[in-house]
Amino acid sequence: MLGAVAGSGPVTSSVAGPGSVLDDGYRNAAEFLRARLRIDIREARRRLTQAALLLPGTTLTGETTTPRHEHLATAFAATDVPSRSATIITTALQRVAFIAHPDTLTTMEHALTRTATHNDPDFLAKTAQHWINRI
Question: What does the H/E/C string look like for 33-71?
């Protein structure tokens, strides 16, 4: 029997038979977050991007992988860096990733993370832009 929770999206069972939760009626994870958390789609996509960059992953064989930006992920998990600041840092790192040396990226990540722990996001954005311009 299919049940519905107040405020949830439609539940269908076209993939795995009756009662399946594989198809929850949402087109993608961002749509699911938008509906469940009642946030706009842009915020949902931003959160999914941050999760991909700052949370450990899992390989096809089930092994855990480290986050792409380990230093930032550690500070973010410890709530030393706010979400907006983490977005500023990851965006800046992505902008220069194709032209900067990996050691430079690591140094930039450490410096921006340190800046984010002691300053507001507006100051961090200016600092990140300075790094981008210098690289």
Answer: HHHHHCCCHHHHHHHHHHHHHHCCEECCCCCEECCCCHH
19 vs 118, higher pLDDT: 118
- 57 backbone dihedrals φ, ψ, rounded to 5°: -105, 180
Distance, in Å, from the CA atom of 29 to the CA atom of 70, rounded to the nearest integer, reads 24
Per 3-state DSSP, what percentage of the chain is helix, strand, and coil (rounded to 5)? Answer: 55, 5, 40
Other Cβ atoms closer than 10 A to 106: 15
pTM score, whole prediction = 0.74
Question: 10 Å Cβ neighbour count for 35?
Answer: 17
pLDDT tens track for 68-112: 899 999 999 999 999 999 999 999 999 999 999 999 999 999 999
Tokens of 37: 């958390």
Measured CA to CA, the distance from residue 24 to residue 28 in angstroms comes to 10
- Residue 85 near residue 121 (C-beta atoms within 8 A): yes
